[in-house]
Amino acid sequence: MTHLRRSDRRIDDMTELKEIVEKADVCRIAFADTGMPYIVAMSFGYSWDDRPVLYFHSAKAGRKIDFLRKNSLVCFEMDIDREIYKNEEPCRWGVKFRSIVGYGTLAIVADPAERLRGLELIMQHYKFPGKPVFDDKVLSVTEVLKLEVTEINGKKKQ
Questions:
Q1: 56, 68, 103, 135: which has the fewest C-beta neighbours closer than 10 Å?
Q2: CATH number for 112
Q3: CA–CA separation, 79 and 82 (whole Å)
């Protein structure tokens, strides 16, 4: 974990970090090349042993694939429990939240078994009942992306 300016807001507890990932409904991925950055919100699934491994699905062509081919290093963000709190003084308004920001390497999954596993993890994350069956025609036009997380930082404001 990297240094946070407000160490009193840092989340170190691995159980709480896993809870944020479990409850998050979207993962924002930030791409960069030598020019303008690009960020996209994506549906995701995950597995977690020592660190999370995140899976995403995508069309085989498009802006995020173009960025990925130029630079596989990405930053990601998830947040939950967002709640705006108000005050009579404008500068005392704020937002309660729990969030994760992390870094890692994103890659296109080539192995057919891992592609299916990634898609199953995505469906599992969104509580699909049972074991999903994927149409071969849809699979043929779908990329599965895998984000191997190298760093993860949690933060909260309650």
A1: 135
A2: 2.30.110.10
A3: 7
Residue 72: which domain range? 7-157
Q: How far is CA 73 from the centre of its chain?
A: 13
Instruction: Supply 94's token pair.
Output: 């704020």
**CA separation for the pair 93, 91 (Å, rounded):** 6
Q: What is the mean pLDDT of each run of 10 residues along the chain (158 residues)?
A: 65 93 98 90 96 96 94 97 88 90 97 96 96 93 97 92
* DSSP labels, 122-146: HHHHTT-SS-----HHHHHTEEEEE
Which residue spans within the chain are E strands per DSSP? 10-11, 27-31, 38-42, 45-48, 52-59, 73-85, 94-108, 142-157
- Inside any domain, residue 102: yes
Q: Tokens 């191997």 belong to which residue? A: 148
Q: Domains in the chain: how many in total?
A: 1
pTM of structure: 0.91
